[in-house]
Amino acid sequence: MKTHHTGTRRLITLAVTAGLLTGGMAPAAAAPVAAPAVSASVTTPAAGPSAVAPQAALPAATDCAAKPFPDNTPGTAYYTAVRWAQCSGLVSGYGDGTFGMKRQISRNETAQILFRYRDPRWTAPTTSPFRDLSRSSVFYQAVTWGNNAKVITGYADRTWRGHQPITRAHTAAMLHRMTGAAWRAPHLDPFRDIAYGGPQYDSITWAHVNGITKGYSAREFGPQRNITRAELVTLLYRLHVTNGQFVTSAPNAYGTTQCTSNCVRYTTGTLNMRRGPSTDFPVITQLAAGKKLNVRLIGTGWAYVWDGTRAGWVSSRYLTSTPPRPPEPPKPPQPSQYPLAVYGTLRNGQSAYFLLKDKTISEVTVRVNGYGLWLRPGYSWWSFMIPSTSTDSVVVERMKIRSSQYASTLRDVDEWERYDPSQPLASQNYNRKLVTDRQGVRSWSYIAGSQMASYVKSNGTKIIGGDFLKRF
């Protein structure tokens, strides 16, 4: 029985030329053939012998009544493209309602999606062109259309192998040949894992320069990696929003030369990166002032650059070889000459007060909340200020040191208390820390290290009231 499909959607005017190739081709399949060079930098492909008449355009809409696939999360990289494909009727989900974002997509499924996208008027043949493609297959009409249009072909043994996955390289080839877009490939390889003149080289460079596909890294395309369902519809969405406006030749066909030395440039201001060397091309991204770029090709007024994430064209008048002046490092804050909040034998009249005598300009007795005062077992003069509850407090003498003697005095007291900030704090008897007294003044004080604090609290004696002079 013959089947006839009447198209209801037309996406963009796409030409299909003869001799086209798909993914998974046997060696006997025809290699890509570059389209004749044209002088114009942009083209809207004209209808070829196999093209169909334009029909109603499919909008790039992502808002429809259909509930989004649960595995297509808003805000993620593939959301817009998958939602567009869903709302456009190009894809459907699995039985559990999911789209299967990370699932590999088969040759059959790829043909079906492209068939729905092109929506041609196509009468399927009564005889299958492939030994393993039955007329009863749900993919029969799509596959025979693709084969007839030379968007896809089978293997040398006349099999289609529709359940095999499609690679990234072959997907780029299918999309390129489906458009019939003219293209003059560059001699400069954008990726190190594809070779100039190799299989699908033309199609990969076409898709890359036109912003349809990207690499897996700065220099790798991953041509033999199988493409996922989410990746395929994303490439198709990017192709769709070009609205048929394609760069028709490689960057070095614009009178540019390949940069071989001193290829680093910096933006002198906020700069648009575009798909082609003209303001007529859409903006890919906006580059911040001072952005470091690797220049690949240099032409009149324009440069083809790589920013570490993507490649595109920028106006060369806003580039400089002089790196931006690094911002001045913030000046280190001048150390404040905090007073010393001393207790125990450092207090006025006690045995260690000699370290501070004649070096202070004021001495005030105050309390510091949140600490308790403890004596080490067996030593009535060896006291420790230890963190405690907010209702606990310690009596200290806040001593303001003369400015000219501040650094040396602080160093002397540190040595007396055996405090060394370069050593692990937990094992030291004392750590010098800032505390705030009841008058709101911040001062340095010597607080028990964590190991000593644990030992003293378990074995020592707490001074009720927190006043060292009233410890007995």
Q: Helix and strand string, N-terminal first?
A: EEHHEHHHHEEEEEEEEEEEEEEHEEHE
**Structural class category:** alpha+beta
Uncertain runs are: 1-59
Helix residue percentage: 10-25%
- What is the residue-averaged pLDDT? 82
Give the distance, in angstroms, between the N- and C-terminal Cα atoms. Answer: 111 Å
Number of strands: 20
What share of residues are in beta strands?
A: 15-25%
Whole-number total of structural domains: 3
Cα Rg: 38 Å
Specify the number of helices: 8
Shape verdict: elongated
Largest sheet: 6 strands, antiparallel
What does this protein look like?
The protein is 18% helix and 19% strand. It is an alpha+beta fold. It has three domains: 78-242, no CATH class; 256-320, Roll (SH3 type barrels); 340-462, Gamma-glutamyl cyclotransferase-like (Hypothetical upf0131 protein ytfp). The strands form seven sheets. Strands 5, 6, 9, 10, 11 and 12 form a six-stranded antiparallel beta sheet that branches. A hairpin with a 3-residue loop joins strand 9 (292-298) and strand 10. Helix 2 (107-118) crosses helix 3. The longest helix is centred in the middle third of the chain and has 13 residues, at 229-241. It is elongated, with a radius of gyration of 38 Å. The N and C termini lie far apart (111 Å).
